[in-house]
Design goal:
Elements: H1 3-27, H2 52-57, H3 62-72, E1 77-81, E2 87-91, H4 94-103, E3 108-109, H5 111-122, H6 131-145, H7 148-176, E4 179-181, H8 182-199, H9 214-230, H10 235-244, H11 247-276, H12 286-292, H13 298-328, H14 331-341, H15 350-354, H16 357-369, E5 375-380, E6 384-385, E7 391-392, E8 397-401, H17 402-406, H18 409-412, E9 425-427, E10 433-435, H19 456-471, E11 474-478, E12 488-490, E13 494-496, E14 501-506
Parallel strand pairs: 2-8
Antiparallel strand pairs: 1-2, 3-5, 4-14, 5-8, 6-7, 9-10, 11-14, 12-13
Helix pairs in contact: 5-9, 7-8, 7-19, 8-13, 9-11, 10-11, 11-12, 11-13, 13-16, 13-19, 14-16
């Protein structure tokens, strides 16, 4: 890029930002607080700037804002005008979701914008690529995730982390009557778990001292800054910062170097270890499996494994955080889950987890209201017409809104706002619960179609074992202002803004 061109773009960007801030300041006077009624009409569009003013005014709650708009539109689909003529379709319509994720799957991939924003962090991993590169990684991953030996390895990892780290931390908090940030505890727990499963590496993030680990800190920062790139109103700004190596882009570069540096070291050590001794596939991590299968290219396996760490850590901890908050406000749900735990061993085995039908339903219901991934975006490779008649042009983003779909009266009925696991269940003649699945395209929490989450069963296995382990011994009691709902927000995945402060109480018996 020539210096003159760069200076011109910088001046234009500065003027643009100044104008946007003025417009946002003026408009924000009419925007009410998130707790009150908000403007749910399709945002007004202006030449060149599109609806950037409305987006900036609502950026702090963009998930809820776009969800509110979708709830008021009969078609549950609208077109958002981005700056410089770009368009983005938002939808909460199951028929449209099925169209983009299955029926016309080849047309809707990750796209160049997503790739450029995330590539520095995730490289050419399974979540950033399309076409043949995606097919190869999907085939490799699907094979490994369907093996009994990996499932057994996951069980062992979860058991050890649960009994040796999580439960002792909760016990100490209970004995000392201290307040914990339960969201942080769960993130530490799942980070240790997924690093062991993916790399065979234990970062020791969940210890009684709750240490700061450079790898975990860098991983968090890299994921957050990467998604800020993707959500940028003016993508040119982060590209200029990257060129100049300043601000957030410099921090991202340093964080990525920390993550990929350790990952490279682990891969080299793993290769050496596999050469020196034979390793049984009955109890080895994903990295060992990939290397043993002949995929020795370091960059290739690092990209794959980092992607799995991102998916396995943030989604599971987010789901469990909101689950325990909902549980604290619904004693009847807590009692039903406790009934399922009664009589099971302290370390719940795989067969016992399969029988935890009500717990499974409660987790599904929690993720309906507070999905780990609130939205997902694809990009049209060519022109298309959606089932509801919406015209999509080449290069347009098409976003299906998981959060809005979970709160749609059209999908879930007038009681959609209720936390009711029973909507996923039915009783047989003897009163035993059985699970009723729902169409993936009405509940795309784990995506759907060819890209449906291959780690879904592993995630449920882990979550149900954690729920049984914690609830069998402790009650998690929120230590926040009563009656105030925590704020749902998101980067790559959702989280509870400000953390989840709790007190831990020991149970003397399961129905206490």
């Amino acid at each position: 890029m020539e210096l003159q061109t760069l200076v011109t773009w910088l001046l234009f960007s500065a003027s643009f930002i100044w104008f946007l801030l003025l417009a946002t300041k003026t408009q924000s006077k009419s925007i009410k607080t998130p707790s009150s009624t908000t403007n749910t009409t399709i945002p007004k569009s202006y030449p060149i700037f599109g609806s950037a003013f409305s987006l900036l005014a609502n950026f702090h709650r963009r998930v809820q804002w776009t969800s509110d708009i979708l709830q008021t539109i009969p078609s549950s689909t609208f077109i958002f005008h981005r700056p410089l003529g770009s368009r983005q379709v938002f939808t909460a319509q199951p028929a449209v979701v099925q169209h983009i994720l299955k029926t016309n799957f080849p047309c809707y991939g990750k796209g160049l914008t997503f790739y450029q924003s995330i590539n520095d962090f995730l490289g050419d991993g399974i979540f950033t690529v399309d076409g043949e590169a995606w097919k190869l990684q999907r085939q490799i991953s699907s094979h490994e995730f369907n093996t009994k030996s990996l499932r057994k390895f996951v069980e062992t990892v979860v058991d050890v982390e649960l009994s040796d780290r999580l439960l002792p931390v909760l016990s100490e908090a209970s004995n000392n009557q201290t307040t914990l940030d339960f969201q942080d505890i769960l993130q530490r727990f799942t980070f240790d778990n997924i690093c062991m499963i993916a790399f065979g590496y234990d970062p020791e993030y969940l210890l009684p001292s709750l240490p700061e680990i450079p790898f975990a800190k860098a991983f968090d920062e890299a994921s957050q800054l990467s998604i800020e790139r993707l959500n940028s109103v003016i993508p040119l700004l982060w590209k200029v910062k990257k060129f100049l190596n300043i601000g957030a882009e410099r921090r991202l570069k340093e964080a990525v170097a920390e993550v990929r540096g350790l990952a490279t070291k682990i891969v080299k050590n793993k290769k050496k270890e596999l050469k020196e001794k034979e390793v049984s596939l009955e109890s080895v991590d994903l990295l060992s499996r990939f290397l043993n299968s002949g995929y020795s290219d370091e960059s290739f396996v690092i990209d794959m494994v980092i992607s799995f760490i991102l998916a396995g850590r943030d989604t599971t901890s987010a789901a469990l955080t909101w689950f325990f908050w909902l549980l604290s406000n619904h004693s009847h749900v807590e009692n039903e889950i406790l009934k399922e735990i009664t009589g099971k061993s302290e370390t719940v085995g795989y067969d016992e987890v399969k029988d935890m039908v009500y717990t499974h339903a409660a987790l599904c219901e929690s993720m309906r209201l507070y999905p780990p991934l609130p939205v997902d975006t694809k990009v049209a490779a060519h022109g298309d017409v959606l089932p509801d008649g919406t015209l999509v042009k080449k290069g347009w983003r098409v976003t299906y809104h998981v959060y809005a779909m979970g709160r749609s009266e059209k999908i879930w009925g007038p009681d959609w706002a209720e936390f009711r696991p029973e909507r996923w269940l039915r009783r047989d003649e003897v009163g035993k619960w059985s699970f009723i699945g729902i169409d993936y395209y009405s509940y795309p929490v784990f995506q759907a179609g060819p890209r449906v989450c291959i780690g879904k069963e592993m995630a449920f296995l882990q979550m149900k074992r954690v729920v049984a382990g914690i609830m069998g011994q402790f009650r998690v009691v929120p230590a926040m202002v009563e009656g105030i709902e925590p704020e749902y927000t998101a980067h790559f995945t959702s989280y509870m803004k400000g953390g989840f402060p709790v007190k831990i109480e020991k149970r003397s018996h399961l129905y206490e």
